[in-house]
Design a protein that fits this description.
This protein is of the alpha+beta class. The protein contains 3 helices and 16 strands. The longest helix is centred in the first third of the chain and has 21 residues.
């Protein structure tokens, strides 16, 4: 397991702030019980920040005709809806909610070429809400394998998440399971699939990036 490069600065800042607060406490208000309690509190927070940016080692579950999960989390929505940004037709939407305990690295669900990338500023509503897909800050990426195999997925910021990082570039050939980006501190990823896709997950299922097969074309 390693730490994601996007975590280096936040972790360093948290570590420095922890040290400063403890040093000030020792200097101006030293008390054994208070120092122990404050130390536990600060180092617990530091642990949470470090854990958030973890990148576990996983072998990619390559499925040529499959769509693998682009994120760790829980399936919260499976429904048909109109996708208005790119396809402008009816698609199957599958929403994956990532809690603060999940790995937050996002990966490409299929092999193909990136044909569309668009970042949208927005609100920071609770990521589980259906309208968060459109109202919240989000980043949309489309990957096309061929004329029939096209997947749109959307990184969505949540109530706590305040930064979406995407490495997707239009025209770039990408591999299934390859890293696409990361969302910081609680968020969601939506997948928009063809209507004839064979869905293999249900609402409430826990899924893992690079591993869980969400659907087959």
């Amino acid at each position: 397991m390693k730490i994601h490069k996007e975590g280096y600065l936040p972790i360093a800042i948290t570590f420095v702030i922890t040290g400063i607060i403890l040093a000030l406490f020792i200097t101006f208000a030293f008390a054994i019980f208070g120092f122990v309690f404050l130390s536990i509190l600060l180092f617990s927070y530091l642990f949470i920040v470090i854990r958030f940016f973890r990148v576990p080692k996983r072998k990619i579950n390559k499925v040529p005709d499959g769509i693998i999960s682009p994120a760790d989390g829980q399936i919260v929505i499976i429904e048909k809806c109109i996708e208005n940004e790119y396809f402008k037709d009816e698609r199957i939407k599958i929403s994956i909610f990532m809690s603060i305990n999940n790995v937050h690295v996002n990966n490409y669900p299929i092999d193909g070429t990136v044909t569309y990338v668009c970042y949208h500023p927005g609100k920071y509503l609770v990521a589980k809400l259906p309208k968060a897909s459109f109202d919240n800050e989000h980043n949309t990426v489309v990957v096309q394998k061929d004329d029939e195999k096209v997947v749109l997925f959307r990184q969505i910021a949540g109530l706590i998440a305040r930064r979406i990082v995407s490495y997707a570039q239009v025209g770039k050939d990408v591999n299934q399971g390859e890293e696409m980006g990361i969302i910081r501190f609680g968020s969601r990823v939506d997948l928009f699939l063809p209507l004839d896709a064979h869905i293999l997950v249900n609402v409430g299922d826990k899924v893992r990036a690079k591993k869980t097969v969400i659907a087959n074309f």
